[in-house]
Amino acid sequence: xxxxxxxxxANRFLxxxxxxxxxxxxxxxxxxxxxxxxxxLLSFGHTYAxxxxxxxxxxxxxxxxxxxxxRVNLLSELSFNYHTxxxxxxxxxxxxxxxxxxxIGYSYGIASSYKHLAIGEYVLGNRSAALLYNQSAAxxxxxxxxxxxxxxxxxxxxxxxxxxxxxxxxxxxxDSSLVLRTKNNQMVGMADSYNNLxxxxxxxxxxxxALDFLFKALRLREKIGDNGSIGNSYGNIARVYYYLxxxxxxxxxxxxxxxxxxxxxNQTGMMQSLxxxxxxxxxxxxx
Length: 287
Description:
Helix content: over 70%
Order of helices and strands: HHHHHHHHHHHHHH
Structural class: mainly alpha
């Protein structure tokens, strides 16, 4: 039985979504620009929270002028937090972090700086530079015998190949990341790897395998108790059921996703869930 209140909300969202898309299409000629504009609006709430974190880190850095590992860690964290707001600043603070890490001989800082520089370059569309920085980070993490850090780099390289449609290479790196995370019992990392593999199979239209991995991710995330990640898993599962035309299951899982994202105030996740529910209501003529 569909929740009537949520169903009405989903339909209101669908009407708003259609109107918004129509307006963007009228204002912008190139479809990629339309999509980026709309995605920017969806991510506004998320970036606002990151701006607050950026301000907090800037204050702490100004209060800690000493050139030590603490300052490196703050610069590195600031570099990462800038990547969805101003990726140019990710590069700027990543280089500051890298230079100071080398100056004081801080190997973890060097590896982390390379990692965040790779993220910044990728967001800016510089794929080759991103891969080079990831390779440098991987080398440093290997030198440190840091399998947790290496697993994260393997995952990031996989994401690059995944988004380029190089699915076999993406799977190889996702698998390598999962092996290390499983070896070291990193439950959060394992859940993320299962989730990424599930999304990879979804993009290949391999829906039974996708659901298998997405449910593995969900079970781990429920054990961990991270509401935002649980909501993300339900949303991904809903998407697969929607592609399979199992609309009742799609609605049910999207509704669960919505409720978990509501708990953590994730406006983007809530709207994505409402979008699926709205489409289901529209297709099934349930108003």
